[in-house]
Design goal:
Layout (H helix, E strand, L loop, with lengths): L1 E6 L19 H10 L5 E7 L20 E4 L2 E4 L25 E5 L22 H7 L4 E6 L2 H15 L4 E5 L8 H13 L3 E3 L1 H6 L1
Family: Belongs to the isochorismatase family.
InterPro entries: Isochorismatase-like_dom, Isochorismatase-like_sf, Isochorismatase_Nicotinamidase
Pfam families: Isochorismatase (PF00857)
Length: 208
């Protein structure tokens, strides 16, 4: 059983959003081709879904500005612009994404006191979203991961999948993903590769 995980392909991370990833919208047609390929038994997606006063927002800290390092619940935290606030257009999945084909949408980042990059659990690694249990219940043996952004939510989702679902083959689809900085993307890909995650293209994914 093979699954595709689409990480945070939301308006907020595309051009015009509150935390845009360069060329983020370009992952949408690639993701749609993967969805339509017929290669996957299950399609799942994650969605950042923050309360408006989330602690990772620079606006929640009078002495901080976006993209400055701060702390949240005593741990180092990148301070972000307000983004993907619950119920706003910024938080919606991209309108051109074939949402009707998605079997499950996991919402994350609801806890004001901890950020949640991974689709599987919060950054404190204690609160789980239920995605790992769901995929195990569906007898998933292979998981392809892609989306936004490579150097944050995609990387952490792929690494958590590897750790939380032993025996499942995890692959990262590079051309169906975009990152925040070139250096960050390169480091994320290197880290995933070193941990045993295969780095593939969408064409490879669809030709298997």
């Amino acid at each position: 059983m093979k699954a595709l995980l689409l990480v945070d392909i939301q308006n907020g991370f595309c051009p015009g959003g509150n935390l845009p990833v360069l060329e983020g919208h370009e992952v949408v047609p690639v993701a749609n081709r993967l969805i339509e390929s017929g290669k996957y038994d299950l399609i799942v997606a994650s969605q950042d879904w923050h309360p408006e006063d989330h602690g990772s927002f620079a606006s929640s800290h009078p002495d901080k500005v976006p993209f400055e390092l701060g702390t949240l619940s005593g741990k180092p935290q990148m301070m972000w612009p307000d983004h993907c606030v619950q119920g706003t257009e910024d938080a919606e999945l991209h309108p051109h994404l074939k949402i009707e084909a998605i079997d499950l949408i996991i919402q994350k980042g609801l806890n004001r006191s901890v950020d949640s990059y991974s689709a599987f659990r919060d950054n404190d690694r204690d609160a789980h979203t239920g995605l790992a249990a769901y995929l195990k219940d569906q007898d998933i043996t292979d998981l392809d991961v892609c989306g936004l952004a490579t150097d944050y939510c995609v990387k952490f989702s792929a690494l958590d999948a590897l750790e939380m679902m032993p025996g499942v083959q995890v692959r990262f689809i590079e051309d169906a993903s975009r990152g925040i900085t070139p250096d960050g993307v390169a480091a994320a890909i290197d880290e995933m590769r070193q941990k045993g995650i295969a780095i593939i293209t969408s064409e490879q994914a669809m030709s298997d």
